[in-house]
Amino acid sequence: MTHNPLPPASSIKRWLMTTNHKDVGILYLVTSIYFLIIGGVLALLFRFQLTDPSLNFLNAQKFNQAVTMHGLVMILFVISPLGFAFANYVVPLQIGARDLAFPRLNALSYWLYLFGGILTIISFFQDSAIDAGWTMYAPLTTNQFSPYVGVNTGGLGLALLVASVTASTFNFVVTIFRSRAQGLTINKLPMFTFSILLTVLMMLYAFPSLLAGLVILASDRLLGTVYFTSPEGGALLWDHIFWFFGHPEVYIVLFPGLGAMAEVIQASTRKHLFGRTAVMVAMVIVAVLSFLVWGHHMFNTGISQDVRRVFTITTIAISIPFDAIILSYIYSLVKANIRINTPFLFVLGSIGVFIIGGITGVFLGSNVLDYILRGTYFVVAHFHYTMVGGGLLGLLAAIYYWYPKMTGRMFDEKLGRIHFVTSMIGYNLLYFPLFIAWETPRRVPIYQPDLLFWHQLATIGGLIFGLSFLIMFWNLLWSLRNGPPAGNNPWGAFTLEWATESPPPPHNFHGIPTFSSGKLEFISTNGAVHHHHETHLSPYPFGVSLGSFLTLAGLTVHSLMLPVGLLVLAISIVGWGREKFVAFEDPIGERWPFDGVDRVKLGWWTFIASEIALFGILISAYIYVRGASGSWPAPGTMLDVWHGAVNTFVLLTSSLTVVLALASAKAGRKGLTTAFLGSTIGLGLLFLFNKYNEWSELIHHGVTFGSSLPASTFFLTTGVHGAHVTAGLLALAYLVSRSIKGAYGKDNWESIEYFGYYWHFVDIVWVFLFPLFYLI
Amino acid sequence: MVSTSAEAVYGLFNLFLTLGTLVGVVVGSYMIYNLLRYRAREDKPAEGEVSLGELPPRQGFPIKLLLSLVLSSAIVISLIVGTFSTLEYLESPPRDSFEIRVTAFQWGWEFTYPNGVVVLGEGRIPANRPVKFIVTSRDVFHKFGVLELGIGIDAIPGKINSYWTQVRVPGTYEIRCFELCGTGHGVMIGKLVVMEPSEFERWYQSQGGVSK
Ligand code: HEM
Ligand SMILES: [Cu+2]
Ligand SMILES: [Cu+2]
Q1: Residues 6+ apart with CB under 8 A from A54
Q2: A350 in B contact zone (CB under 8 Å)
Q3: Are A100 and A84 in contact (CB under 8 A)?
Q4: What ipTM is given for this predicted complex?
Q5: Same-domain status, B83 and B102
Q6: Which residue range(s) make up the domain with B30?
Q7: Structural domains present in chain A
Q8: How confident is residue A258, by pLDDT bands cut at 50, 70 and 90?
Q9: Are A664 and A267 within 8 A, CB to CB?
Q10: Residue A382: CB within 6 Å of ligand 1?
Q11: A670-700 helix and A641-666 helix, angle to the nearest 10 degrees
C-alpha cells in the first residue's frame, strides 16, 4: 500500500484542509444532519404551537419566521446536501475515479454551503428574520413590507449556497463525463451515479433562476429598482422566476434518494433493476419536464386559461415517468430472493409513502382542484409525503446502506429496524392527519376548532418522528467503535464501490479499474502513475469561503467583519492561484462524448452554460415586464443609442484582441501575447468608462434605478453584465501579470483559451443586450 | 351541495380520490404481496444472481411495464379530461351574474358593490343567483378562499382575477386568506353572508342599490 497522504482523522487540520472526496462527503453528511436537527427543532417548536391555537407559545411573527426558516433549511441545507454527501463519497467510487475532477473546488463547495447555512441561520437571530415563507413571495419581501435587515442576511446566505451549488454542478458534470472507468458507458452507469448526473444537470439550469430572483430582489431592496414593487412586474414576475427554480428543485431534492433506493433494491435482490433502461429514460423525461411544469404553482393567479391547460397536462403527465420508475422498483422484487435489512426496509417505507405523495400531487396538478387546495394543509401533507417520504427516507436508506463502506463497521441491525418502525409510525401519525385537516390554511398558527384533534395527533407524531432519529444517531455512533467489521461487500452488491476496502484507501482502488473486457478488472499501475504526488490538502477553499462569509456578514451583521473578510478573501484567492495542487486524471477511461475535451475546458463550458441560464432569466424578466407594461419609451428617447453602439464596437474589438493574444501565444510570440492581453484590458476599461459616462448622464437627467421599470431593467441587466466585464478584467490583470513574466507560449496557452471562452461569452451577451435595450 | 362551484370542484375531487385510492391500494398491496412472497428464507446466493463488478446487459422496454403505463395513462387522461370540462364550466360566469369586487389588504377584506357601496370584513351576496367575485389586492399577494363554497382565487396587486358561483344554501361562510401575507395572515378572516334573494334585495336597497 502507498503511504497515507492525509493526516489522521483525529486531526483538525485534516478536516479543515482536506480535498479528498470521501472526507468532503463525510463533512457534508455531518453538516446536513446538523442542519436537520436545527430544522427539526424549529418544526417541533411550531408544531407545538399548532397543538392548540389558543397557546401563546409563538406569536404570529415568530411562527412565520420559524416556518420560513424550517422550509429554507430543510430544502436547501438538509435534503440536497445530504444527497450530495453520498454523491461526493460514492460517485467517484462507483465510476472508478480517484477523486472528483476538481478536488479543491469540491472542498470550496462544501465550505460555501456550511457558511451559507450559518449566515442564513444568523439572520434568524437578527432583530427580524425573514418571515415570508421559503417561497419568499414578492412584494411581501420588498422593503415596503419587510423592511428588515434579516431578509438581506438570509438572502446573502442563500447566495453563498448558490455559489456552492454552481461549483458542485460543474465539478460533477466533468467528473461523471471524464473520469469513468473504461467500458462504463453512460447507459451502464450505476443508478445512483446516473441520478446524480441528472440532479446536477437540473441544478445547472434551475439555480441560476434562483440567483436571478435573488439578484433582482436584492437590487429592489438595496438599490431601489422597481421590478417587484411595480404592478407590471410585481408578484407574478417573482412567481415565474421562483418556480422556474422551485419546481425542478423538488426533483433535485428527490433524485439522489431515488437513485440510492435503486441501489439498495439491486443489492437486496442481487439483480439488475427491472426495466433499468426504461427507468433511466423515465428519469431523463422527468428532468426535462421538470422545467415545463412551474405554472402549476400559478393556477390561481389568473394567467391565461390555455397556458394553465398546458401546465395541467405537463404536470399530470409527469406522473407517467414516475409510474415507470416506481413500478420498476416494485417489479424488481418479483421472483427475487429478497434480503430484508434496514436499508431495504427504509426503501419499502419510502416507496409506500411516496406513492401517497405522488398520487396527491396529481390532485394538485389539476387546475380545478388547485383552486381550493392551494395554500392549504393538503399541500403541506403532499410535499412532506414526497420530499420527506421519497427524498429523506430514501436517503436514510442510503445512510444505512453506505455506512459500512464509509466506516468499515456494521451498524446494529436490530436498532436499525426499531428505528424504521418508530419512524414510520411517527411519520404517518405526523403527516397523514394533515390530509384530514386539509382545510387548515398553510402557515397560520390559528385554525378551525374542529380540526384540533388531527393537529394534536400530528404533534404527537412529530415528536415520535423527531425522537426516532435519536435511535439512528446512537446506533451509528455506537457502531463506529463497536460494530462488527463490515468487510468489502457486506450486502453482496455489485457496483464498483463494493470492490474496494471499507473504508477505501485515499486513492480508492489499487490499480485502475476497467470494464473494457466486459467484466471488472484492475490494471496494475506499477508505479507508472505515482499516487503520492497527488495533493489532498489545501487551506484555501476554507479561506475563500470564510473570507466570503465575513465579507457578506460585514454588510448586514457587523461592519468590522467586512475588512477582515476582504483581507482573508484576497489572501486566499492569491494563495489558491499560486498553490501547486496536483490532481491526476487517469490516463485511460470512458469519456464519451467529451473524449477530445479536457476537463478544465469542459468545466468552463458547464460554467458558461449556467451563466447563459442566468442571463436568460434576467433577459426574460426584462421581456416579461416590458410585455406587461402598457407603454415603453421609444428607442433613442431614454437611452442614447450612440453609447450602446460605441460599446458594442469596443467589446467586439476586445474579443478580437483575445483571439489574437491566443494566436500569438500559440506562435510563441510572448511580447505580442502580452500586448494583446494588455489591449484587451484597455478596451474593457474603455467599455466601463463609456458606461460610467452613460450612467451618470442618465442619473443627471433624473433617470435613476428606481425612476421607472424601463430604467430599472436597463440598470440592473446591463449592471450585471458590467459586473461580468469587471470580473473578466480582474482575471485579465492576472493573465497579464503572468504573461509579462513570459508564462504563456507554445506549450502553455490553455489559460488564455479558457479565459477567451468567458470573454467571448460576455461579449455575446452584450450583442443581445444592445438591440434589446437600445434599438427596439 | 351548497354551491355550484363546490359541486363542480368537490365532484372532481371525489373522482380523483376514488381513482387515486384505487391505484394506491393496488400498487401498495402488490408491493407487499411480492415482498412476502419473495422474501429470502436464508441468505444463500441463488441462481442467476449478479456478481460483483458485473455490468447491466442490454435491456429493452419490458412489456409488463408498458402495459402498466398504458393503464396509468388511461387514468391520467380521464383525470385531465375531467379537469378540463370542469374548468370550462367554472370559468364561464353567466352574463347576468351579480358582480362584487373583493379587495384584499393587510389584513382584511373589502367588498365594493356595483353602486359604489363599500363594506368591510363582511360581504353579503344573494343566494340562488350567479355571483361573480372580482378579486384584487391593495398591497401584497393574498388568496381569497371560501372552502365550503368551493371558492379560491389569488388576490394580486395590479391584477384582477375573477371567480363565480351560485350558492344554494343561505348562511354565513368563512373567508380566509390562503397565501402568506405577513403577520396578520392567520387572522385575515372574513365573512360571506349569503342571504335569501328578497332579504338581500332589501338590504341592498337600504344601501341605495338595485341589484336587478
Ligand atoms: C420533525 C419533522 C417535521 C415536522 C414536524 C414538520 C412540520 C411542518 C409543518 C407543520 C409545516 C407547515 C407549516 C405551515 O405551513 O404552517 C411544515 C412546512 C414545511 N416543511 Fe416540514 N416538518 C418536518 C420535517 C420536514 C422535512 C424533513 C422537510 C424537508 C425535507 C420539511 C420541509 C418543509 C417545507 C419546505 C415546508 C414549507 C415551509 C413554508 O411553507 O415556507 N419538513 N413542516
Ligand atoms: Cu411544482
Ligand atoms: Cu394571507
Answers
A1: none
A2: no
A3: no
A4: 0.96
A5: no
A6: 4-90
A7: 340-491 (no CATH), 541-578 (no CATH), 635-775 (1.20.120.80)
A8: very high
A9: no
A10: no
A11: 170
